[in-house]
Amino acid sequence: MKFLPWLRRLVIRAVLGALVIGVLVVGGTAFRVWQVAREDDRTHADMAVVLGAAQYNGVPSDVLEARLQHARRLYQQGVVGYIATTGGRQPGDNYTEGEAGRIWLEAHDVPADRILEVGEGTDTLGSIRAVAAAAREKSLRTAVIVSDPWHSLRARTMAEDEGLDAWTSPTRSGPNVQTRETQLFYIRRETGGLLYYHLMKAPAGAFDGILL
User: Fold this and answer.
1) Any residues with CB less than 8 A from the CB of 113 and at least 6 apart, and which?
2) For the whole model, what pTM was predicted?
3) Would strands 142-146 and 165-168 be described as parallel, antiparallel, or unpaired?
4) Residue 53: CB partners within 8 Å, gap ≥ 6?
5) Strand pairing class (80-86; 59-60)
6) Any bridge partners for residue 142, and if so which?
7) What integer pLDDT is reported at residue 66 of this predicted model?
8) CA pair distance 120, 99, nearest whole angstrom
9) pLDDT single digits (tens) 160-206
10) How far is residue 105's CA from residue 160's CA, in Å, rounded to a whole number?
11) Residue 132 CA from chain centroid, whole number
12) pLDDT for 33-79, tens place per residue?
């Protein structure tokens, strides 16, 4: 049984090595979430993709309205030619998130023929896949992702995996970007969601009670 101390040392080293790698992967991903959140790329694109958020009987929530306002500014500044509104409906809803976004944009002077309503998807991946398919039908290939800063990296990664040439211009207003505590919460949430996506190529489901 003389091999047991050697085997014990090997197991301890393997466990410690795995822990170190895990810390580096998680820490590196969290840093990238934070880093991309600070980017605001105004390079011209075919469309701005507004990631969906809650709506109330056709009226966007404060989170969704902040995203729509940002996309509208990008359109007015000539950064994009179209605005794609995304997101399906939750049980009991009369409107999809994409529909609520279109209604808001039309009411704020964005021409109807410049809006691509994609009222599908109950999570980020579902919405991205639906908007990528709609974009291919209209030969739209480049996209500026409009969401909250911490959501940018995961959404951009998914868009690129679906064949879009994508970059990010996140909103800097709204409830999700107000306090340091909120920012830390979403960095943690998005780090977990992105790592899960890289591993499974699927949405993480309900993470901290929020659909990813």
Assistant:
1) none
2) 0.87
3) parallel
4) 60, 61, 63, 64, 67, 87, 97
5) unpaired
6) 165
7) 95
8) 10
9) 999 999 999 999 887 767 677 888 888 999 999 999 998 898 887 65
10) 26
11) 14
12) 999 999 999 999 999 999 999 999 999 999 999 999 999 999 999 99
As given in the structure block, the two tokens for residue 106 are 């039309």
Comparing CA positions, the residue from 117, 114, 42 lying closest to residue 81 is: 114
Q: Are 49 and 98 in contact (CB under 8 A)?
A: no
Q: What is the pLDDT of residue 205?
A: 65
pLDDT, tens only, 125-134: 999 999 999 9
The pLDDT value given to residue 208: 45
Euclidean distance between the first and the last CA atom of the chain, given in angstroms as a whole number? 51
Rounded CA-CA distance 210/17 in Å is 32
- Per-residue H/E/C for the chain: CCCHHHHHHHHHHHHHHHHHHHHHHHHHHHHHHHHHHCCCCCCCEEEEEECCCCEECCEECHHHHHHHHHHHHHHHCCCEEEEEEECCCCCCCCCCHHHHHHHHHHHCCCCHHHEEEECCCCCHHHHHHHHHHHHHHCCCCEEEEECCHHHHHHHHHHHHHCCCEEEECCCCCCHHHCCHHHHHHHHHHHHHHHHHHHHHCCCCCEECCEEC
What is the identity of the amino acid at 74?
L
